[in-house]
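User: Show me a protein chain along with its predicted structure.
Assistant: Here is one chain, sequence first, then structure tokens.
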Amino acid sequence: MSSSDSPALRSGVLAAGNFIIDHVKLIDAWPAEEMLATIHSEQTSNGGGAYNLLIDLARLGAPFPLEAAGLLGKDAAGAWILEDCERHHINTFQLTQRDDLSTSYTDAFTAIATGRRTFFHHRGANARLTAADLDLAASQSRLFYLGYLMLLDSLDATGPDGRSAASHLLENAVHHGFSTVVDMVSIADPGLVAGTRSALPWIDHFILNELEAGQLVGRSLRHSNSQPDLAAMELAARDLLGAGVRHSVTIHAVEGAVSATAAGCVRQSSVALPSGYIKGATGAGDAFAAGWVYALHENWPTAEGLQLGVCAAAACLADPTPSLGLRPLAECLELGRTYGYRSA
């Protein structure tokens, strides 16, 4: 990597991976098998790690370029995604439509009484995304985001060398001058876990929730009473640094987040939202990631990045869709000042 390719001299976020249409449905309660639930409302929205992150950054008012990279079907859903990205001033040069693929979609059901979500996902075009579909040399973005690992079939595949295709893509991104940011999804598959671990040495900044981190380190990060074990989360973050992650590991949960670097760990509790505020939790983890990535790009201190992350997640919770609750940065941070933060 030449000095002119240094991430410090570049600007923007190139986000690759899952681009999904979410069909978000609010239901009265989750039914038992063969029973009926009532759908009270439904909306179509953005979904998937890369797509949500870009829309959230746009809604936060990111002052840097945003670029999308992925595969779509040449169908109405694919056209909807392209139009939505263009409406949010996201560069879609590397967001490709193909006749032989169908755009990925998810039916997301949120129970009004609990706010809990259940997903039915069609992998579609995302499953076919490979490194050959991306032109890293064509981008001068500072950050290369890839998400979600374990939900990108071709990139998750492990080769004869024991490494996932994603690990090779991330290595290539590093060599092209990017600082890499990675997110993953929770799927109980030991083979996928091994492939994800093979990518760690090429991840600069790893963002994941406590369930996903627990999968990678092989132990629960919650107490027996279901409360988060912050000490265990910090230990897991340090373990992932020791396993190869290059700069930071950030683990988030409903209750807050921890971030570990070689300099140590920082904790941040989530916003203490009032009763009745939460309309749905779909996309809250991606909103946290967007706040963290915004701060990362702008070189904010870790503590301020975590605070923006939990405030962006809090804004997300005000709407059942992944991104319509997101507000400009100052308004998100105001949620923390207005409601305060949970006790540790």
